Each structure stands twice: as C-alpha cells, then as structure tokens.
C-alpha cells in the first residue's frame, strides 16, 4: 500500500484480522454515514477527504488481494502508533504515574534500567529485560530494597522499589511492556527511514544486520527485529538488497611497494570525536531528565488543547477566531520544532549523517533554546523548514502527541 495515505483498516477502526466481506462492507457504510453527518454539522476538511476516499476504500477492502496488503500494513502501523496504547496507559492505576516520576528522579529511562543498576555505584550490572519472569523481577526488587535500606539518602529510591514490586505483581506489567515495545519499534522504524534516505530507498543486507544487532541489545529478540524491519520496508516500499560488491580487475595488478602511512591531518579526527562525544553526553543528559522534559511537553500539549477549544468555540467571522487560530498554529509549530530538535540530537548522538538543512535548523533552534535572540529572517527559515517537514499536520492544526515528541530520544541506545 501507499505509506503516504491512510490505512483503511485503521481509518475504519477494524482489526487487521477481519476479512469477512459482509462485516467490512457494513463498516464502510457505517463510517460513510458518520462522515457525511460530520461534514454537515462541522464542515471539517478531513471528514470531507474521508468521504472522497470511500470509492477507493470499497475497491481495496472488498478485494481479497488488496485487502490482504492493507491488513499487513495495518499490523506495522499499529506497532508504531502511540494512540494504540493511550487508552491502556490511562487505565493504569495511580501507581504508574508515581513510577514515572520516581524513574525521572532516579535519572533512569525505564523500569528495567532501574532494576539493572547497582545501588551503591549507580552503574549497570547486567540487563533486566521485559521477557524476564515476573517472579525474577520481583525478587530483584526485594534485593534492591535490602540494599537501599543500608544506604544513606535512599528514601526516594526505596519508595520507587516498593512501587515497582507492586507494579510487577499487579498484572499491569503487560501494558507497560507493550508501551515500551511500541517505542522501540517506532525508534527502529525511524532508524530504517534514516538509513534508506541516503541509499536511494534501499536497505542493504549489511545495514539490516547492523540494525538487528543494535536493537537486539535492547529488548528485541533477533528474529523479531529482522522480521519487523523487513515488514516495515515492504510497507514503505523500500528495497532490501545485498551490499554492492566491488568488481574484480580484469588484469592482475602488481603489488604496490610498502608506503609509509601519512600522518593524520591535525585536529580533524580529534575534533570529530570530540563533537561525537559531546552529542552523546548531551543525549544522555536529556535521557536522564526525560521525566522533567515530558512534564514540559505535556504542559505545552495541554496549552494546545485549550487553544483548540477556544478556536472551535469562537465564530469564524469574529476577530478573536483569527487571533486564537494564529496562537494555536504557533504553539503547534513550537511542538514540532522541539520534536525535530530531539530527533536530530538522537541522530547526532548515534553518529548519523544529517543534511545541511537539518544542521541549520538544529543550530538555530539550539540558539533560541539558550535564550539568544534570533533575527526575523532566521525565524522565518526555521518555520519554513518545519512547514516542509510537517505541512499537512500543521495546516490541519494537528500537533504531535507528547509521546511522539520525546519517545525517540527516550529509546535511543547510546554506547
């Protein structure tokens, strides 16, 4: 399917396992009626666009071959869509919110990271993973509680350990694990997109192997990582090929005389290494303060939602409507700017190549975050860049979710 349009299983709200023609046709008729009503009552452009898609939806969803492709793509989309788990997260007890704050105070990225840390040194000792048995994780929590009892100023960490012990045994671990896996898959999808961008929409077997190995070190079993990457490439239309080989010379070449290796160019390698280490250190700092960052992003998201309420509740002909709409668009642009900044920081910390436009945006936005004054032309170039990246969502006044802004950095593995 075309990855640039809506998946029809997702759009219709159907599970990808549904294949009964009568059930699908009934759902199409139900949604068509709903979209007509919404266009009449609200006149929103997205519902009008959905109505225009109905003939294509019928064509693809009522044909077994095209429907199978649509279902396969829906599985990938569901794996990396944060909204899939929003309801499940909201259903978690208050304990979950306390754990998130506790992890932020402990400067660790997730529950398993905390369980893997040595209480005395704070260093990682092995790695606890989501596939570990709940009994083993609960036993580890007890060990940590005993260790922290004998350490000074460890009350907050003892409280976090007790919360984790309850959380592991309460049946909510499965939802937490699903949320983490969604973040990992989303991060892996970003990595694939980045790699193929510089290789003509092609992923070599060598890059496939590197990505698989890298994410196996996190949570993914090797076979699952490989299958997900291949399925994602098929969904996006990327080719997976063998790495190009150099042709053998037709005439044997004489061996060259041993040459004295040239000394490295002064400063070039050390400076590159220093820059790479700087980005890694900065990314680690962001990860350590992820809890505080999420609070800031959530507050901005609440602000966006309040502006939406004001914009929708004001007559379109009133002067205040234009004012609210302008403020709303500005707030959404800021949210996308911070998301882009976090994503590019993740790329740089991993040593990935970025474009000149990405570097220009990154340097300018970092300057603004430091409170330095930016010229009007610089601000305009920043907004132009964001429009080129997220034009459809910005024009539809759709902001990235709070999770979308921070999740890539949260799951970035920094060696």
Determine the fraction of residues in helical runs and give it as a percent range. Answer: 55-70%
| Helix/strand class | mainly alpha
What is Rg?
A: 25 Å
User: What number of domains?
Assistant: 4
Shape: globular
The biggest beta sheet, please? Answer: 2 strands, parallel
Total beta-strand segments: 2
Average pLDDT value? 76
Q: Are there runs of 5+ residues with pLDDT below 50, and where?
A: 244-275
Topology as H/E string? HHHHHHHHHHEHHEHHHHHH
Query: How much strand content do the residues show?
Result: under 5%
Q: Helical segment tally? A: 18
* Strand order, sheet with most strands: 1-2
CA(first)-CA(last) distance: 36 Å
What does this structure look like?
The two termini are 36 Å apart. This protein is 69% helix and 1% strand. By secondary structure, the protein is mainly alpha-helical. It folds into 4 domains: 8-80; 92-171, no CATH class; 179-241; 278-411. A two-stranded parallel ribbon has the order 1-2. The longest helix has 31 residues, at 319-349.
